[in-house]
Amino acid sequence: MLLLVLTIVLLALAAAVFRIGRGRALALAGGLPKNLSALPRYYGWYVVLWGFLPAVAVVALWLALQPTIIEALVIAGLPDELRSLSDAETGLIYNDIRNALAVGKLPDDARLADAAAHYVRLTGRAPLALSALSVALLLAGAGIGLRMVSPQLRARRMVEKIVRGLLLVSSTIAVFTTIGIVLSLLFEALRFFRLVPITEFLFGPEWSPQTAIRADQVGSSGAFGAAPVFAGTMLISFIAMAVAAPVGLLSAIYMSEYAAPKVRAVLKPLLEILAGIPTVVYGFFAALTVAPFVRETGGLLGLDVASESALAAGVVMGVMIIPFVSSLSDDAIAAVPNSLREGSYGLGATQSETIRSVILPAALPGIVGGLLLGVSRAIGETMIVVMAAGLAANLTANPFEAVTTVTVQIVTLLTGDQEFDSAKTLAAFALGLMLFLVTLVLNIIALYVVRRYREEYD
Amino acid sequence: MTDSTPTIPSRSDTTQTVRNGLRRRYAAERRFKIYGVAAIGVALLMLAIMFGTIIGNGWSAFRQTYVQMDVLVDAAEIDPDGNRDPKVLSRGDYEGLIKAALREMFPDVKKRKEKRELYDLVSSGAAFDLRDEVMADPSLVGQTVSVTVHASDDVDMYMKGYISAEVAEDERRVSDKQIARIESLREQGRISTGFNLRFFTGGDSREPELAGIAGAALGSLWTMLAVLVMAFPMGVMAAIYLEEFAPKNRWTDIIEVNINNLAAVPSIVFGLLGLAVFLNFFGMPRSAPLVGGLVLALMTLPTIIIAGRAALTAVPPSIREGALGLGASRMQMVAGNVLPLAMPGMLTGAIIGMARALGETAPLLMIGMVAFIVDLPKGPLDAATVLPVQIFLWADSPERAFVERTSAATIVLLVFLILMNLGAVLLRKKFERRW
């Protein structure tokens, strides 16, 4: 609410500043725009940028840092015997204060009363301080900008330079996102590898991340060997690709080589619907319909099928990936030049012979790229396996048994009550790092193959 | 062409060989074509089965069973002082009134177990409905009012035919006595089914008959607003820079490769980023739509940038050259001439990216948007959940009635997605231009 009001106030001020800046430039030029070295409106923009940018930057910084700073201030104001505790403990105390205040009470510990009052004072004042600071900054900046305005000022160039800088900054956000992902994953994963050796994590055959809360607890060995988890991921991805690769490739061939344009115009969007369905819907479908169906069919055939079998999750995931494989294969097939087709027909080959021995080999790199992207999707897919695959890490290649995957483990480790520093939560980041690295390598290879192949026929 | 083969088959021999193989080759041709048709058939069949089961399971959730009952709003129970003080009224024992009314309807019920079964016929929300009604009109106190309350989920399931009376009694959630009472209520015309308004206006609840999607839908709305506000301007600006201003150098290459790779990073990794950076490092609140929006904005950004660049490339060079020829600066050309023409394409890309973000679940699980939240979120900082997460949460609930609600919530989500994609298609159709 405050933010909305503040935004409106700042925008209104900016509009006013714009008019003042433009008016001042015109006044200095004696009312004649030709005496100015840029259109009058650029002087307005110039002044606005001077005021608006610092104000917005301060608001953003403030909002990002406010919780951290308030926490530091409150903790600094604690009585000495509490302040000297470890960071984790002071953090807990701070949470107690906040939780107590959230339900409208003072903390139980009387020593915290002052700190609580301090917290209330700080959070109460913060919005006002922020508003005052940002408005003051805007006005001060605009004031400086106004003083700089003169008929000789090359306002358009300055404004364009700043705008260009802003454009550059937004284009780097993607890079910073990647850096953020890598750093956060790496940082937490390294902390994990200090607790569990990396070789044990990668090759250890036993995965049971329930760490003991009490030392004598049974069944909480806290084993972090992720090999069964990786094996489960591969099994489910393999099943998914066993469904998606033939179905996707064959439907792409049919649509691009056989189907009449009108039929194609209907079929293609229909297949693309599959790509637009949220994965949680696939997961619900897998758990509600496919898993019981697989179990009952297996039961009829005398097979012992787990209710969360890898097969059910894998098949549904395969259906989800069909449109990716088919649209990328479609692109690759469409990019094969017609001369190759005609040459083959001219030699007397039938259409299917042409496709098999001329078009598919020519389109192979694009198709392989599409399949690799499909694999990377299968590995990273979360909701279907969370809802339809199991939690227990079985090292098995039997598709009728329940297996678990990397993504399932990340979700189970990080949802629910958790303390942030335990090996259990850190393990999720180690798994995330593996997931990120593997999918990244797959994507890079796939994009490289696809791009190189495209250039070949362009 | 010099031929080095020693024996050149005569013309008739070759024709014969080809002829002999023709039948086999045509059969192979037909088979191959059938494979293609079968593949498409399999894909479409799965699509049809999926839509079929979800709509088949979900449509009945849009209707709900109600019980009409006559409740004596006993002044002695809820307003002992008789001054209609709202504070006292709001604390009255309305559940007792409902139970008394039920006993009134079935005077033969005496045993405790039977009583409990009787009370289970109507929803536990009935007491709150009655309270709201009395609070709104205190003159009802002391009178017998006829109220229509939600039946419990078991009754609802029975009325909708999901629980059959033919199943053995201990295998169903409704006992024989309860069925007898439901039938007797039906004969009295007290049971009705009507539009399930609460499903669209209510927050989450442990009771299926009271659970609604309004909280999740509002959470989705706030999250999407946050995504729109952050991702769209950033995406458009990045696309403009890369397409119109960026010099061709290493740095630009890195940015481009980066954006393409980011588009293929698994969504759950963005959730880990959000957890480590936004929650733990910056200390932002858990479960807030603002943080969810931030994470999804980062995830959507590559899509918007790629679509934006495609839209900018589609603007013909003649427009640019015309503007530059008239003396515009590059920035003026972009802002005044190129961008307005590219805007529909950029909006289309943004809508498609937003549709994907609307259906996204996994990263939001990481930042705590999975909480059980009854209240409707009033702003982007209130704890909230979103539609797909609500589906995920309900899908885990064991009650039969939640299967129905989950499917219904899925239908609502799919309708939103279809509308958004339809909007994108229409936008493209309307503004599509060929130069």
Relevant terms:
heterodimer, A: about 450 residues, mainly alpha, MetI-like fold, 2 domains, two-stranded antiparallel sheet, about 75% helix, B: about 425 residues, 3 domains, 3-stranded antiparallel β-sheet, 18 helices, 3 strands, flat
Question: What's the topology here?
Answer:
The complex is a heterodimer of chains A (458) and B (435).
Chain A: H1 2-28, H2 40-76, H3 80-83, H4 87-102, H5 113-148, H6 155-195, H7 198-203, E1 207-208, E2 223-224, H8 227-258, H9 261-276, H10 279-300, H11 310-334, H12 338-346, H13 351-380, H14 383-388, H15 406-414, H16 423-457
Antiparallel strand pairs in A: 1-2
Helix pairs in contact in A: 1-2, 1-5, 2-5, 2-6, 6-16, 8-11, 8-13, 9-11, 10-11, 11-13, 12-13, 13-16, 15-16
Chain B: H1 11-58, E1 63-72, H2 75-78, H3 86-90, H4 94-105, H5 112-119, H6 126-136, E2 144-150, H7 153-159, H8 176-187, E3 191-195, H9 197-201, H10 214-245, H11 250-262, H12 267-281, H13 289-313, H14 317-325, H15 330-358, H16 362-366, H17 387-395, H18 400-431
Antiparallel strand pairs in B: 1-2, 1-3
Task: Characterize this entry briefly.
Chain A is mainly alpha-helical.
Task: Give a structural overview.
- The complex is a heterodimer of chains A (458) and B (435).
- Chain A has 458 residues and is mostly helical.
- Chain A has two domains: 2-153, no CATH class; 223-457, MetI-like (MetI-like fold, Orthogonal Bundle).
- Chain A contains 16 helices and two strands.
- Chain A has helices spanning 2-28, 40-76, 80-83, 87-102, 113-148, 155-195, 198-203, 227-258, 261-276, 279-300, 310-334, 338-346, 351-380, 383-388, 406-414, 423-457, and strands at residues 207-208, 223-224.
- A two-stranded antiparallel ribbon of chain A has the order 1-2.
- Chain A is flat.
- Chain B is mostly helical and 435 residues long.
- Chain B has a three-stranded antiparallel beta sheet.
- In chain B, α1 crosses α18, α10 (214-245) packs antiparallel against α15 and α10 packs across α17 (387-395).
- The two termini of chain B are 48 Å apart.
- Chains A and B meet through α2, α6, α8, α9 and α10 of A and α1, α10, α11, α12 and α13 of B.
